[in-house]
Amino acid sequence: MTVSMPKIPAVRKYKRETTEVSGCLKYMIFGFNVLFWLLGLGILTIGVWAWSEKDIFNNLGKVANVALDPAFVLICIGTVTFVIGFTGCVGALRENTCLLATYAIFLSVLLLCEMTAGILGFIFKDWIKSQATIGFQTFIIHYREDPDQQNLIDWIQEDWLQCCGIEGPKDWDKNNYFNCSSRDVGSREACGVPFSCCKRKPNEIIKNKQCGYDVRKPGFTFDVSKIINEQGCLEAIEEWTEKNMISIASCVFILLFCHILGICFAQNLRADIFAQKAKWH
């Protein structure tokens, strides 16, 4: 006698649908923005550390011109880079459409500002030149008061452009320490220029910090042209810009292209996320 066993209903296997979000796109945005996030954090940390070393947080009156303070510029650049990197990094990792939209908006605004600055800079070249002159004059006047500005102007004169002053060494008369009348108050640097104006000597290991003493003094017995750079930094930067125009244009193009690429990637990832959510709902 056969016993009929009850039929066991077949178990249906449901295949879990895979996400439609592109993993390559997601982790590409995440990876690049992690680097920018860390870069921004590093720049911001350096800027804050520089201000704390100068005790600026306790005495903001020490900053003669905050827009020209190198530490403040680093803080601004670091903050912007950190915020953009954070929104892109977390937005991509968490597939957060709000953060990705914020990331795309930040890049769009930055792109618009860069393009506007480039166009205005080309149109108002004389105004830019006059503002650069005013800024350099401020650096010269406060050369001994702010170590960051001092290091910056020394780098410009010695390492970058090999120049001296705005239009020439005589511009250092604007500084109280290097003014020729400062001899009356005992300044050894009177009628001189900073060491960064001096020409580099072959195989020089230790820089002579007194090489610019008395070079503007009437009756100076040595050939000044062999000791210091007599070309002004304004003329030197114009020549440098003309010589490196192709490199500058290439860097600007790459920067703008990266901004556009980042905006497109963020928008595509947002579209993928919205498509996934619509499918599951």
From TrEMBL:
Membrane as UniProt keyword: yes
Entry similarity comment: Belongs to the tetraspanin (TM4SF) family.
Pfam families reported in the protein's UniProt record: Tetraspanin
Location of this chain's protein in the cell: Membrane
InterPro entries per UniProt: Tetraspanin/Peripherin, Tetraspanin_animals, Tetraspanin_EC2_sf
Transmembrane segments: 25-51, 71-93, 100-124, 245-266
Protein name: Tetraspanin
Keyword DNA repair: no
SUPFAM superfamilies with a match to the protein in the record: Tetraspanin
Bilayer topology annotation: Multi-pass membrane protein
Family annotation (Gene3D superfamilies): Tetraspanin
Keywords: Disulfide bond, Membrane, Transmembrane, Transmembrane helix
GO cellular component, one term: plasma membrane
